[in-house]
Amino acid sequence: MDDFSEDAVNCFIDAAYSGELYKISKENFRDMNKMSRVFDVAWMAKGCREFFQEMITALTGDDCDEISAVLEEAGYVNATMKDSEFLDMAMEKIITFTVEQRSGYIKTLYADQMGDLQTDQLTLLLKIANKDYSIVAALLGDHLPTLSAGLDGNARYILQNMGLVEDSKTRDGIVEEMFDLLHEVKGITLDDMKMVLRLHQKRCAAIKDMCNTIVIIKDMNEIATLEQSNPARSSGTLVWTPTLDEVNQLTAEKKMFSPPIYIRNIPWKLKLKLKNEDNIDFLGCFFEL
């Protein structure tokens, strides 16, 4: 019992005699929860869980101190008892807060110490952001310009684990802003460049998975000219006019490809493919790497 606070020990003894956790508090919760597990008192462990759930229920998105207290306890249980249940319970509540509330919390805790955070803190940060990538993008937007010798370990960890480029539902504006920031990092290294290229490739793969059918063409005359969209983002503009031989190839092989289109120096092709093999008047236009 020497490993636990006097308050927690007294609470534990009273609970053992009375069968109630009426003296449990935020101050002794950690030791009470630990003792209930160490001594395998199932009803007490259940009571501690219910008390923690009450702490979570009382959270508001504007109280950074209370959010931090809950996450600290959940993190302690996760780290020392290898039990992620409390952390999952806390995150289920926290991700219901608005983007502005979660962004404000993250900035309050992490903005000025981005380069010094531990991996578990970075993982927690990404959990809080959930899939609202603008939260993490804003944090990176403040951190990346401060770097002078390429990407640091924390920037690399976030970029590789935030899921931004892999999510086909992410709006392109956020992705482009992130790549623009990366292109401005000072002292970029060869490993950094390789990682950025991999991020480019993952983004292309995500878009490819998303873009099953870009446009449906019901009239053969409409395929006379296909023009690349948004040429300002590309190294060249392609206007493709299929020849008669190419149209005949489409009839025979059910698909045909344009010459390469270079978007951010990554080659793409337009593919025309029959959507209904019995009817050449019904076509689909696809992007493919």
Task: Kindly describe this structure.
By secondary structure, this protein is of the alpha+beta class. The strands form two sheets. Strands 1, 4, 5, 6 and 7 form a five-stranded antiparallel sheet that branches. Helix 6 runs parallel beside helix 8. The chain is elongated and about 85 Å long.
Task: Summarize the topology.
Blueprint: H1 6-18, H2 29-38, H3 42-57, H4 64-81, H5 85-94, H6 99-110, H7 119-129, H8 133-143, H9 153-161, H10 172-183, H11 190-210, E1 215-217, E2 226-227, E3 239-240, H12 244-253, E4 255-257, E5 261-263, E6 266-274, E7 283-288
Antiparallel strand pairs: 1-7, 2-3, 4-6, 5-6, 6-7
Helix pairs in contact: 1-2, 2-3, 3-5, 4-5, 6-8, 7-9
In short:
This protein is α+β, with helices and mostly antiparallel strands and 289 residues long.
* Major pleated sheet: 5 strands, antiparallel
Distance between the termini: 64 Å
- Could you give the order of the helices and strands? HHHHHHHHHHHEEEHEEEE
Number of strands: 7
Q: Supply Rg.
A: 28 Å
Catalogue the unreliable spans: 210-239, 274-289
Calculate the mean pLDDT score and round it. 77
Protein structure class: alpha+beta
- Write down the overall geometry: elongated
